[in-house]
Fold these 2 entries.
Entry 1:
Amino acid sequence: MSREAVRVTRMELLKLKKSLEVAIRARNLLEEKRNVLAMELLDYIKKMGLAQEKIDERMKKAHDAFIEAQMVLGKMGIRSAIVSISPDRFSIEEKYRSIMGIRIPILNLIENKTQIPCNFLSTSSKLDEVAFHMNEVIKTTIEVAEAQATIKKLAEELKKIKRRVNALDRIIIPRIQNRIKYIEERLSEMERETIFRIKRIKYLLEKRKITEIA
Amino acid sequence: MGKIAAIADEDTALIFKWIGIRNSFIAKDIDEAKNILMDLSNKKEYTLILITARIAEKIESIINTIIAEKEYPLIAIIPEIGYPVYKKIDPLRELLKRTIGVEIKTSR
């Protein structure tokens, strides 16, 4: 809307002042929301880092147990000990929760309690250790995945908020302020014109009165 | 209810299959890894794909694209059973840089 399209009335001025108030309040609320989400984001980044460390640690233990099992059973021995493929023992249940109106996924690992198949004649306790550590790795990986999904959602929301705050700060608020300034200037100019007109009429009337008397 | 899949080297895939991740795929080269990942990411039944670090390092750009564009599947990078020490890749770094405008490391 150009300046020319602005109606120069007191009603319009009041309306614009109200809009400015609302825009400033909206900007402040968005900034508050941005701060809360940024804190949540940092929190999840920290959680993800810790879970990743846990995975690395477990994987190292699984690796050590695997090497030991390999030393005891040999590479072919391990393959014959792991006789068959398990049925799918894991599935993920997806639920959602809300952080300030943002839908955040919660992942639950559903573990089917069936036994891991094993050839008892040619196995080693070290292989059980590998299975135990790998199970833990999968459990912790769910935490990483959940944190990753949350971080992604929060980052997308932060981007939207940033765009909205920028639009309010750089376009909407300055535009309303400019309109208010324009209307105020025009109104005071009109007021000055009216005062001048009244004074002029008063002067002319007085002049006419004096001539009539004379 | 979503499934878990894995793309890994031979030993890790074998262990995964053994402990109960039936959809564990062995990727022998980059092209195979790319094809498996694209195929898995287009199927709606998978919620999580585990990829071992040495493979992930080679197909980092595809992983970044899937993470940025799709809600699911989620991708988690884990070390290989034979190589517990690995070069860390950070699939969220680019996304965070682009969305927030600040570089934040998510892996330690």
Entry 2:
Amino acid sequence: MAWTRDQMAARAAKELRDGFYVNLGIGIPTLVSNFIPSGMNVQLQSENGMLGMGPFPFEGEEDADLINAGKQTVTELQTTSYFSSADSFGMIRGGHIDLAILGAMEVTERGDLANWMIPGKMVKGMGGAMDLVAGVKRVVVVMEHTAKGQPKLLHKCTLPLTGTAVIDLVITDLAVFSIDTAGGTGMTLVELADGVTLDEIKDKTEASFKVAPDLKTKAA
Amino acid sequence: MNKIFPDARSALAGILKDGMTLMAGGFGLCGIPQILIAAIRDLKVKDLTVISNNAGVDGAGLGLLLETRQIRKMISSYVGENKLFERQYLSGELELEFNPQGTLAERIRAGGAGIPAFFTKTGVGTIIADGKELRDFDGATYVMERGLVADVAIVHAYKGDTEGNLVYRKTARNFNPMMATAGKVTVAEVEHVVAAGDIDPEAIHTPGIFVQRIVHAPNAAKPIEKRTTRPRIAA
């Protein structure tokens, strides 16, 4: 069985460590905040200028001056600080953020990422994605394994790049892959979702990958 | 010195001209200088190059200046919330320069601080680096980006005093402090006007030297783009 969005988020939450400063992208990555283990101290950074992001407000307590990078209303915590976008990206570019979790359209076996534009069709922009993948210590992608039946894990991106050799881990609805961006030894299949076979992964993946000797099957 | 102007129109008098470069603070619709944007629409200045992280939404923020086709070029990081923008861009009416958000913030900060260029890792190996100088430092490759300045910067602050000192509120700060430093003339709309000395000098975010004109905007609408809430748990 393929993992649900919540199961993918729960799997991504296993990458969190106590004391981490973390930036979560829009979509499934945002759900990761629901799976932070109790007792673990994780501060969420929002690149528009906030560290220590709280949950959505109660109805009637929304504050137009208090939003996250997805423009959603959020709340303050005891640990919150506010700062300018320049300071915020100083944190990101300067390597002070431990982990970023974001979505993707395409990822390659060497860790290249495309997630910001479809020429002639979709004009949205990269927002902070290029800065995050260039500056954050560890970058995790959470995405569907395929789009309209076509593989998203490729030899080479067909869409404009967000960054090259920047992705350390890819979590799809079918499997988890690690990518050795520092050593350049490529992509390794490390986990299968419960009930997913290696043949199914081979069938739905264009990128070259090795299979970890201790490949695990996990229900997430 | 009293920098307070009676209304948005008078605060913009004599500084707008066709073809000028304008910086507009805000992230999404949060912390945008709403009454100044509306006044620029009414003053009909055109062929603007606008530097702003986003392009507003249909009917709000910079969306107002897109409707009237006063903008010729946008320099932004994300314009995904604006259908009119997408239409004008894809039809070739509107020029667009995408900047990574952190690069945009730093270009503005650098411009205001008199730094003509800097090197960053962001965008190396992507189309953002096309045609730009690359240089290696300590074993990694960086791309050169230029500082940005504007003829006029318009910003939104929570509080401003007669000296031009500004305080922002929560995440409405965003791009406003850098833009205040990078305008040849900076006009701030503020929700509360106070006397010099009423803001704790330790708490001032933007020193008044960067702000030439202030207009009181006590009732500026503060739209919420994505109202998200959680249920109250019954006691």
